[in-house]
Amino acid sequence: MGISFIITTYNVAPYVRQCLDSLAACARPGDQVILVDDGSTDETADRVQEFFREGGFPEAVQWTPVWLGTNTYGGVGIAGNIGLDHAERDTVFFIDGDDYLIPDAFDRARRDYDRDRSDIFLTNYDEFDEKNQSLKRPADSHRWPTLESSSPGEPRRIAALAMIAVPWRKFYRRSMLVDKKIRFPEGDFFFEDNPFHWDVCLAAQSIGFSNHIVCHHRINRPGQTMASTGIELTAFFRHFETIWNAIPTSQTEYQLQAVRWLIGNMSWQLSRLHPEALNMYVTAASEALEKINPSIWMHNALQSLRGSNAWRYANRIRSGKEWDVIEALHTSRSVRLQEELSDRLNALEKNTKVQNAHIKTIRETIQARKSADEYQSIRSIFNK
User: Fold this and answer.
1) Model confidence over 161-190: pLDDT tens digits?
2) Where are the stretches annotated Disordered (predicted)?
3) Is the CB of residue 107 less than 8 Å from the CB of residue 214?
4) Which CATH number fits domain 1-227: 3.60.40.10, 3.10.490.10, 3.90.550.10, 3.40.50.300?
5) pLDDT for 295-338, tens place per residue?
6) pTM score, two decimals?
7) DSSP secondary structure, 186-219, as one string
8) Which residues of the chain form beta strands (DSSP E)?
């Protein structure tokens, strides 16, 4: 079983060498490594050349570089599709150019996949916080018991749909992607991996998994998509409409899961939005939410969502109270900023008190030392 590894890069010079080194420890003879650089303007190309000067990939690993020369619009969609166009092996595995694989765990997951041979095969990952230099579990880590206990077929499909959509945690059977004509959507938007994930899960005849942490996904680095706070987040509503339109009206479980997906994403987006993005965000939300049938929206299976702020805001938007929501979000943001400012002032005040106490201690120490020196001087005079 050969793998076509697809690495997508854009201005990741500080990180791409670690990515390539980790992949070199995972790639086997007969594998293919495709690097699609989306017009990097930093030293990404230099770091790649440096990697090859110092050894590169193992012998018999096919190297397929694609240098686009200019940055394409949107996110990873175009670069990912170009990688798929160049893939020649029977399995595809995506890697972000700023992430890195865990070789031992990847090898174990690969062996599991070799035995399983599902159309898609999910693995696990950790997030590496670049700012704090620490690891943490992803938001869907609590869903693994459900996935592991799910029965093959529709229960497992629903469980897989609930997992975070990222493509770099999965082995894909390439023939399935080709036969079903599954590709990333292309356009002036980000987060293309979400409809791709839904297309794959709905098309797959078999879904497998291996709970091994195969990579560390870098977060909190400059220029990262998930740091978005503006109108680019409205892409989620466009993606929701794409997902919703692809679900047969008779498939209630999939529709319910699509609503869960939408509310789940709104829950982390609402607290990040800049004021200038609120109008466009709420307008896009209104257009998407009105597509949901009342019978689905009020379904008992969604009861657990109804206590969340995201649900309450979404429900008011569906009721035509968009301006109330915009005003409430403005107020919520103002309160949150005031609380953050208050916390910073309290921390500054506390730090000032500590510094003043430290200065006082230093002064007292200096004064004591001065008094001791004066005493020694006087004593030496009398001893003569």
Assistant:
1) 999 999 999 999 999 999 999 999 998 888
2) 133-153
3) no
4) 3.90.550.10
5) 999 999 999 999 999 999 999 999 999 999 999 888 876 555 55
6) 0.82
7) -SS-S-THHHHHHHHHHH-S-EEEEEEEEEEEEE
8) 3-9, 32-37, 62-67, 91-96, 100-101, 120-129, 134-136, 170-173, 207-219
